[in-house]
Write a structure and sequence with these properties.
Blueprint (H helix, E strand, L loop, with lengths): L2 H13 L10 H9 L4 E4 L7 H10 L3 E5 L3 H13 L4 E4 L5 H12 L5 E4 L1 H4 L2 H9 L2 E6 L19 H7 L5 E5 L4 H10 L6 E4 L7 E7 L3 H11 L4 E5 L3 H13 L4 E4 L5 H12 L5 E4 L12 E6 L6 H8 L9 E7 L1 H10 L5 H19 L4 H8 L13 H4 L4 E3 L1 H13 L6 H9 L4 H5 L16 H13 L3 E3 L7 E3 L1 H8 L5 E3 L11 H4 L11 H18 L3 H4 L2 H10 L4 H4 L7 H21 L20 H9 L4 H7 L4 H13 L7 H7 L2 H13 L5 H6 L8 H16 L1
Parallel strand pairs: 1-6, 1-7, 2-4, 2-5, 3-4, 5-6, 8-13, 9-11, 9-12, 10-11, 12-13
Antiparallel strand pairs: 14-17, 15-16
The structure holds adenosine-5'-diphosphate, magnesium ion and zinc ion.
Length: 728
């Protein structure tokens, strides 16, 4: 890609979208598409797929065609783009003839940068005729898994995309989805004729989601307490049946929570009304069957509760994935009971055998997930075939409150030997029977009761052994046999272990049926204290709601949650300053900013606030995740050790972040801290070095003999001070 194009891309990212940098793999994806190549993107919900086609659409001449399955979502996206000052339109059955004609005319005149088309409109002959007259830059197929019967959301019309795209001539295609098991992935590529496309697959880790499972006991009390902890925040409570949805919505309402139900059995006007109320922040909590959430794209859902157990781990991942799309910390809470599992199992009783067995396996997965004391992230990501170390989590109940660990070396060895001795042809239940020494029909017929290790584990319960087997799988020593569903086989790592058994820490499962009373109280880990000015934040939210109402748009289209939080942290008082806020580009700042900066300026004056905005000058580098928090804490003159601790960082890590902040142009006043650490004279001495040394390196300073009494931290701190004083 040439330099000019690259610069243009970066400029649009900042000026139109208001982002300071790309996220994850967005940059290479966009580059690949701009170079005219077919591109296949698999990225979890909330990771930022839309930008991968919206930005190139702005860079390239002509119109990008976006195929997207949900009409509600389409309007939503187009509203968001228009709020950014982008000429985006949609073409679907909700438009009148005249409206459609205008959209087509503007597209042919090349005024439209992005045209969203519903698959059923696309397949109409008149649409194809019209598209042949347009100057198409590329074609984006969003939610591309809808093309596959193996996915969870198959749409027959998606099957016809291929032939239509072919009629439109040679255009690069970008396909995007948040779920693609290998089967679905192949299906998508085949059905879009893009086998040669470059594949960009990101991790499924949603770092900002806190996962938690609790026993379904005293559930109503627990639910109320949980929802009240998040006062005024948006959340979804999922229930299995329509009846339960109605009941719980009513229950929340009588407890002063602003809740409403949503399910397919409601009258359409009520349903739409409740959904809009949720989008517009007139309703805080939606109680719904799992159908809810597919059609909406609300970025600031702060919690998702599974009142009833979900049907599969993939479903759980999708549903919890609707929380925190904006990247801000959000909570996912599941209530688990064996009773729910039996209920779900009963639903399956009329299905054909194969289907029923599969459904049962899915329920086993979710049961193990719930009962396991292993990091939730490790388990979820393992399910999607990703390896992940629990050391990188610290954001789930099992990491925050670990159960007692035990040495698992001997147990794991016994499990692996049993898999070998039974010739790697059996599933979990059979293996447990052999280890426990249970003489079932199968065990006897295979003569497994004659094995040396038969009954070797009879002092422990069946649950215990199931948990060991699961953890052995999570450790990668055992794997699933892809061809034979349910069969467990040993991996290379497993055979290596058998040759040389080593220490392995395992955790006892949660026992949800026999909870001790006191356990109930512990688990209400509040997410880190807020870093922003809560009073101003509330005022800004109220203003946003007003503006939104006036513009007839959902509030987050005006400014996203992240942006509002950041405003309440660094107090931008001019339109210029406002554009430094994440998610606020020139277009948005000019369109909606005036009232906001006026309010902030007034607030700053009324409250005599010396703001970080005095401090923030330019922001070019990536805003790191903790940046705003750190700036504010330093503003409040907090001890750095404390800041580091509340971020669970080392001092070293914190200094890295601070250096980053300062070198991207933000002034930080650390004098209050430095003065405790070093007296004036000493500070001068180090400062002198940086004033005179060309390299300005910490390493160079450390090598100076006359500075040898100073620690690395002290030198780094002085360098930060130096940069703040002179470089900014
Ligand atoms: P997906 O389609 O993958 O679920 P979206 O495209 O809806 O995700 O994006 C999720 C959120 O991430 C949106 O609120 C969007 O504004 C934000 N976002 C996307 N790219 C960036 C970026 N480079 N920097 C900051 N925020 C971003
Ligand atoms: Mg999307
Ligand atoms: Zn964890």
């Amino acid at each position: 890609m040439n330099e000019q194009l690259e610069q243009k891309t970066k400029d649009i990212l900042k000026q139109v979208f208001g982002f300071n940098g790309f996220r994850g793999t967005q940059e290479p994806i966009i580059k690949n598409l701009l170079e005219g190549n077919d591109t296949f993107v698999i990225m979890p919900t909330g990771a930022g797929k839309s930008l991968c086609y919206q930005l190139p659409a702005m860079v390239l001449p002509g119109t990008a065609i976006v195929i997207s399955p949900l009409i509600a979502l389409m309007k939503n996206q187009v509203d968001q783009l228009q709020a950014l000052g982008i000429n985006a339109r949609f073409l679907n059955s909700t438009l009148s003839k005249t409206e459609a004609r205008i959209v087509k005319k503007e597209t042919i005149e090349q005024k439209v940068k992005l045209l969203y088309v519903a698959p059923e409109s696309l397949t109409k002959e008149e649409t194809v005729e019209f598209l042949l007259k347009a100057n198409i830059s590329f074609i984006a197929v969003d939610e591309a898994h809808c093309i596959s019967e193996w996915g969870h959301d198959f749409r027959p019309e998606y099957r016809r995309i291929k032939s239509i795209v072919q009629q439109l001539g040679e255009h690069p295609i970008i396909a995007l989805t948040a779920t693609a098991t290998p089967k679905v992935q192949i299906d998508i590529q085949k059905n879009l004729n893009m086998e040669a496309a470059s594949l960009y697959m990101s991790s499924f880790n949603r770092t900002n989601l806190y996962y938690e499972v609790r026993a379904k006991q005293d559930i109503k009390k627990q639910l109320i307490r949980f929802v009240k902890e998040q006062k005024g925040k948006s959340g979804i409570v999922y229930c299995l049946s329509r009846k339960k949805v109605e009941e719980i919505a009513e229950f929340l309402r009588v407890n002063d929570i602003n809740a409403a139900p949503y399910h397919a059995g409601l009258e359409s006007a009520t349903r739409v009304g409740n959904q809009d109320g949720f989008l517009n922040e007139n309703i805080d909590v939606i109680v719904a069957t799992i159908a809810f959430g597919m059609g909406i794209d609300k970025p600031d859902v702060r919690f998702v509760v599974h009142y009833d157990v979900p049907k599969s781990l993939e479903g759980y991942y999708q549903e919890t994935g609707r929380a925190g799309r904006d990247g801000i910390d959000s909570r996912c809470l599941m209530f688990f009971s064996h009773n729910d599992i039996s209920k779900l199992d009963k639903f399956n009783k009329d299905k054909p055998i194969q289907e029923r067995d599969n459904a049962r396996l899915l329920l086993q997965e979710i049961t193990s997930f719930a009962e396991s004391a292993v990091c939730r992230r490790v388990q979820l990501l393992h399910y999607f075939g990703e390896e992940f170390s629990k050391d990188d989590c610290d954001n789930c109940d099992n990491c925050k409150h670990p159960t007692e660990p035990y040495e698992g070396k001997d147990c794991v060895e016994l499990v692996l030997k049993t898999v070998m001795a039974t010739e790697k042809r059996f599933g979990m239940l059979h293996l447990v029977d052999v280890i426990k020494g249970t003489p079932t029909e199968y065990v006897l017929s295979y003569k497994h009761d004659k094995l040396d290790l038969y009954g070797k584990g009879n002092t422990e319960t069946e649950d215990f052994w199931r948990s060991v087997i699961r953890q052995t799988m999570l450790a990668g020593l055992l794997g699933k046999d892809i061809e034979n569903i349910g069969v467990i086989k040993i991996t290379k790592k497993g055979t290596d272990f058998l040759k040389e058994p080593r220490s392995l820490t395992l955790f006892k499962n949660h026992d949800f049926d026999n909870l001790k009373k006191e356990d109930e109280e512990i688990d209400s880990t509040p997410i880190e204290a807020t870093a922003y000015d809560e009073k101003l934040y509330a005022m800004l939210k109220a203003l946003r709601k007003n503006v939104a109402k006036h513009e007839n748009l959902p509030p987050y289209v005006i400014f996203q949650e992240v942006s509002v939080e950041e405003m309440a942290t660094i107090y931008p008082c001019t339109i210029e300053e406002l554009t430094t806020i994440t998610g606020v580009g020139k277009g948005k700042a000019t369109k909606f900013g005036a009232d906001f900066v006026r309010l902030i300026a007034q607030y700053v004056e009324d409250n005599d606030i010396i703001t970080a905005a005095d401090v923030t000058i330019k922001t070019t580098a990536n805003k790191s995740k903790h940046k705003v928090f750190i700036i504010q804490q330093i503003d409040k003159k907090l001890e750095l050790e404390e800041v580091a601790e509340s971020l669970k960082m080392s001092m070293d890590g914190l200094l890295d972040e601070i250096e980053h902040i300062v070198s991207s142009g933000t002034k930080l006043n650390l004098d209050y801290y430095m003065d405790q650490v070093l007296d004036d004279e000493k500070q001068e001495e180090i400062l002198d070095f940086f004033l005179n040394d060309e390299s300005g390196d910490v390493e160079a300073a450390l090598e100076e003999e006359y500075l040898e009494d100073y620690s690395e931290d002290e030198i780094r701190l002085m360098r930060i001070k130096f940069l703040s004083m002179y470089a900014n």
